[in-house]
Amino acid sequence: MSAIVEIEGLTKTYDDGYQALKPLTLSIEEGEILALLGPNGAGKTTLISLLCGLVSPSGGTARVGGHDIIHDYRAARRLIGLVPQEIALEPFQKVWASVRFTRGLFGLPRDDAKLETILRRLSLWEKRASETKALSGGMKRRVLIAKALAHEPRVLFLDEPTAGVDVELRRDMWEIVADLKAQGVTIILTTHYIEEAEAIADRIGVINRGELLLVEQKDALMRRMGRKSLTIELRQPVDALPEALAAYDLSLSQDRSRVTYFYDTQGESTGITRLLQALSDAGLHLADLETRQSSLEEIFVGLVEAEEEGAA
To answer: Is the pTM of this model over 0.90?
Structure first.
């Protein structure tokens, strides 16, 4: 597939000298889901705002569908749908009128059947005649999503789309994302629910202090940076681990009844067989074993902490 979003050296520095985004270069393939992870203030929303034309860049270039976001703004923006973090809706406008108005803003012909499909998919059809001020926070979020989809964008930005909403909307949102991906829509997602990124993203980008730390295929990232752990439940608690086990990366639980062994998933050998023999030789008897793969959240936290320690 070809890149539908191409970013080269894009930066943003405000008048007070604060550099919200350091030179960033990134290509996003058509039809992929890219999850951008980072702490608050990392630069995620700044990047989205630049690409959507809400903020002017200080340097660099970006193209959406081959259209420059500055010199060919209208053509680039026509391809983009945006679900922002903040809920900003006209309070007295009815849901149906709000969604239809957004479609018209992009110069598309009236298509009530298309809009009905979107509203039904988001459980908004019964609320189509309601003023937005009468809706719950979750329903207002659904209206934002409907408005973002009204003009059938090829690139959809979701900036914390499920923050503070009910479980039902989160489930609906990810089902819609799966449907859009199947239709070839490119989705760039920021979220605090890292388990959701782990579940649906094709690639993961980690950003902190305005700098893109990495972009990598999710599965490859988890294989490369993930660690596995083996938790060994002992038949009898021990006061301390024997000196003979000092060569292994072990930790003893607070109740001293479990030993956890960490090992590299990319290593030539896990060392588990030798460890189990060493435990037996040390007189420790096993009651049970459990293995666990490190999560994307743990990898993300480790990357951010390492970057911040390096910047200190």
So the answer is: no
